[in-house]
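seq as requested:
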Amino acid sequence: MKNKSNVCYMLIILNVYISVCCGNIGIPSLNDIRLTFFKNFDKVYCTFSACCNDRWISKNISGLQYDLSTRLHGQHLVQNTVLAHIKGHAWHSNPTKALVLSFHGLTGVGKNFVSRIIAENLYRDGLNSRFVHLISATKEFPHHDKDMLVKYKDTLKSWIEGNITYCERSMFIFDEVDKLPALLLDVVKPYVDYHEHLGRVNYRKAIFLFLSNEGGTEIGRLIYEHWMSGKPRDSFTLKDVENTILKASLNSKSESGFWHSQLISQHLVTAFIPFLPLEKGHVKKCIRDALIAKKYYSNVRDIPDETVDLVLKELTFYPKEQVYSSTGCKRVSEKVDLVMMDASKYDESHQHTEFDDSDKHTGEL
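struct tokens:
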């Protein structure tokens, strides 16, 4: 808003200058320029600064589909469900309610990654957009006593209302939902319900993403049983697990997050989306992605299988059959650096050894 105020100030000065210099000498073209400039102020301003319009908020569904299919590994349920709901909501000029997606799974399986992919394809500035709002439960709402809950509810209410009043196509990402104080999320209920307007503000075009570890253990158990029965991973369906996630969230043993939440009891969550534990094959793809992203290699075809296996050995897997990664792909990036730095030191040492041997050989001659 400060930038916009500065632009306004400059335009006022320009207006005064044109009036003084040209207002009394009959140059209508300059006056026309002035009037045209002010009539198109928002258009001019929004060329240089983010505004709540199609220039800064896109509907790049094809890009979203491509990123989910090529950058996200091992999450067929996520790819299909997220794409369908985002597409339906983004292209509807007048949706019946805000879109509410709840992502569930253990650490490192892609919940934050998918949130970033969505932001990058719907907003020109991605997660840095002024219309994308990320809130961490442990940072913003760390205390669980009743006195703080009242304050937190007021803060969250003002935050949602202020941002959607400014831009009705805002997106909110709640990270670590399972660590939020119990019943705090009930504040969100009016804004995701089937209201046409609240206080003359339309909340139905907003998107709410909830990221939680709740239900992750249950998801892991169900997919492991599926694997043990010899069924292919891709045959695991949303129907197999969605009700389990709902119950785990509503009856959370930690009595936090979605525990007894009206968002669930009033059926206001559009979809509960499970993120499955990642198998070794999926983690290998993450390793190759990291090697390219960190510029250790320029082409995935040039990456030796031996290098990928070295990184894989630095990670832990469970259960006794060593099927699933304990941390998904979360620690892949740091392990890639570890392995590549060790390899670099070996190469340098090996080069020095060859050089020394060559000197000794030359001296003996």
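The radius of gyration is 27 Å.
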